[in-house]
Structures are given as structure tokens and as C-alpha cells.
Input
Amino acid sequence: MLTTGVDLVELNRIARLVERHGDRFLERVYTLAEVIYCRGRIPELAARFAAKEATSKALGVGVRMMARDGIGWREVEVIGDERGKPLLRLSGRAAARAAELGLTEWAVSLSHSREMAIAVVVAR
Output
């Protein structure tokens, strides 16, 4: 099985959430490693937010707050390899759903402009 997900996020949306909810938003959506890596940089936070959404689409479910059978935000973590290439680490319901679908290989690509961030996720 081959599956994909893509998500596009406005940087202003993430900036407003960080401004309005601060650490509460960061702790709900991002892992500690992601928060440390991004150091409050909105483009990086937005790209990781998009990656989490794109991963949920590749898994064929939503994010838990929007879908009963969805995954949790922190169950998808974007980490970097030794050269900084983004990689996905799944846990909890996200990992269980991937195993259920037989998905063992994941690729993620992140990008952003001044206004938008995008993530594309492919799995097989």
C-alpha cells in the first residue's frame, strides 16, 4: 500500500495560536524535542503542524480533536537526522494505525514561505 498526505498552513494562524495560548498550545501540539528545535520560530512550528496534519491524512484518520478515531498531535513527531533531514517518529494511536495498515516506511518534506508552510508525507 502507498499512501500520501499533504497540508498547507498559514504562518499567521500558528503565530496567533502561540500568542493567544503560549506554552499551553506548544505543549499540546509539539513534543519537547520539537519545541527545543524550533525555539519559537513560527515557520518551523507551522511546518511541523502541517506535517502532523499530513500524517493523519496519510493514515486515513483525522487529528483526535476533530475525529473520534483520530491521532494525537504529539503522536507524530518530526525529528531531524544527522544532516537535518526531517524524519517522522510515530507513537501511540498513530503507530498502531500505521501497523494496522502495514506502513513501515515514511518520508516527509517540509517547506515554508513568508506566509505559508507545507508538508508532504508519503508512506508505504
The chain has a mean pLDDT of 95. The longest helix spans residues 42-58. The chain has one domain: 3-123. Strands lie at 3-10, 76-80, 86-90, 106-112, 116-123.
